[in-house]
Amino acid sequence: MTVGIEMGQTGGGAARLDLEELLATRLLVQGNSGSGKSHLLRRLLEQSAPWVQQAVIDPEGDFTSLADRFGHLVIDAAAHAEETMAAAGDRVRRHRVSVVLNLEGLETDRQLRHASAFLGGLFDAERDHWTPMLVVVDEAQLFAPAAGGDVSDDARRASLSAMTDLMCRGRKRGLAGIIATQRLAKLAKNVAAEASNFLMGRTFLDIDMARAADLLGMERRQAEAFRDLERGHFIGLGPALSRKPLPIRIGPVETESRGAGPALTPLPQTAPAEARELILAAPDPVQPRAARRPPPVAPQDMLAQLAQARPAAPRAPEPEPTPEEEAERQGRIAAILHAMLEETDAAFRPIGVLYQDLLVRLRIHAVAGRPPELPAFRRMLAVARAGVPPEAANDPGWPEAAARADTLPEDTQGVFLLLAHAARQSLPCPSDAAIARAYGSRSAGRARRLLGWIEEQGLIVTRPAAGGRRVVALVGLAWETAPGDPAAA
C-alpha cells in the first residue's frame, strides 16, 4: 500500500504523487517567474505535511505561513550565526520537527552560507536519526548556480557542495530533495541530473524549453508547448507521477503566500495644485533608516525554539502498553515488514529506503507507539530476510542461538539465524543464493566469504559432504544441518 497525495487534476481525473516513491527519487520543478512554482510547492507541502517531516529553504519568506496551519517552526536566519545553523539542522533531524528556514533580510552571500550550514547539519546527522524528510529548496539556482556570480567563491562552493550532497547522496540518509528553479540553464547540471521526477511549467527561452523537453523525453518540436502553459499548469514525468508526460493543473492551497502578485489599485483623486505641492515641496529632513532588528531570540537557544515548535496544549501521557498489547504490536510490525519483503526485489533495496517504507506503512496501518529505531530495524530486517518463522522463538534452545547472533553486526545476524534454524530442524544447509538473500545481496561469492567470516568468529564449522554438498554445525550447540547443495537456486 502506498501513500498518494493529490496534486491537482489531469484530463483523466486526479493527479496523484506517490510520496514513498518521491522519497527515493527526488523532484525538480522549473518555470519562469509567475508560472506557479511556489503555488505547486505549497500544495505539495500542505498535502504531505501529515505524512512526512519537512524542511523548507525559503529565500523570500514566502512559506512562513505554514507555521500557523501545520505547526512548522520558522527559523529566522538573520537572528542566528552561521554556526548555529549547522546545530539547528542536526537538532531538527534528532527531534523530527518540520521547519521553514527564512532567509529573508540576508544578503545573497549570507543566504548561501546559512543555507549550506543548515543543509550540512541535516546531512551529517547521526545514522540513528536518518528518518524520511522532504527538503524543499525554492529558487534553487541561487544555491546551486551553474556559474559564478556576485557572491564570494567560498560561499558559492559551500552552497553548491551542500546542494550536491542533498541531491546525490541524501537519499541514503532519508533526505528527499525537491528543488525549484526559474531557469534550468542557471542551475548546476550535476544537481538537476539527480532528480528522477519533473514538473515543468511555463517557459519562454529556447534553451530552457529545449532542456525541459529533453528531460521529459519529448521531441524538440514539442518544446514550444511550454510557452503556452497557463499559470499553475505543469507537465509532469517520473516514477512518482507518470511513466509518460502528463499535463497537470495544480489544485488550491490552504495557506497564503506573502509573495502573491500585486493587484491593481485605483489611483487617488489628487488635484493638480495639491499634487504639485506634495511632490515639489521642500524636502523633509533626512531621517536615518532604522536598521532591521532581528526577533528577540537568543542566538544559541535553538533547542528552546525546537521545543516550542509544536502546540503547547497539555497532553495526557499515554498509558504503558500491557505485555499482551506490546506483543500484538510487535506482531503487526513483523507482519508489515514481511509483507514489504514479499514485493519484487524488496529484499535487495537499501536499508534506508526500507526503513522509510516501514515508517510510512506503520502510519497507514495506524500502528500505535514509537516506531522502531534504525538499529532495531536492522535486526528485524535481518531476521525477516532470513525467513526464520516466528514459532522458532518457542524452541527452548533458541534464546541461546539468538544471544550468539547478537555478538555479530546487525546485517549478518539474519544469516546466522538462518543457519541456526536449518541446523536446529536438521534441514538441508542453505544454498549460497539463500545466504546472499538473507544478507541483502545477489552475490554468491559474497555469501561464501560471509560464511567463512562467521566461521572465523568461532560460531560455526563447515565441512564438505558427498556429492559436493555442504554441512554447517553450530559450535557449542551441537546443532547440525543436513547436507545441502551450495549451488541450489
Automatic annotation (TrEMBL):
Q: Which domain of life is it from?
A: Bacteria
- Chain intervals for the UniProt region annotation (Disordered): 306-329
Q: Which UniProt keywords apply?
A: ATP-binding, Helicase, Hydrolase, Nucleotide-binding
The Swiss-Prot or TrEMBL record annotates one GO molecular function as: helicase activity
Q: Which residues form the signal peptide?
A: none
Q: Does the keyword Coiled coil apply?
A: no
What the entry lists under Pfam families is as follows:
DUF87
Q: Which residues form the Helicase HerA central domain?
A: 15-67
For this protein, the record's PANTHER family field holds: HELICASE MJ1565-RELATED
What name does the UniProt record give this protein? Helicase HerA domain-containing protein
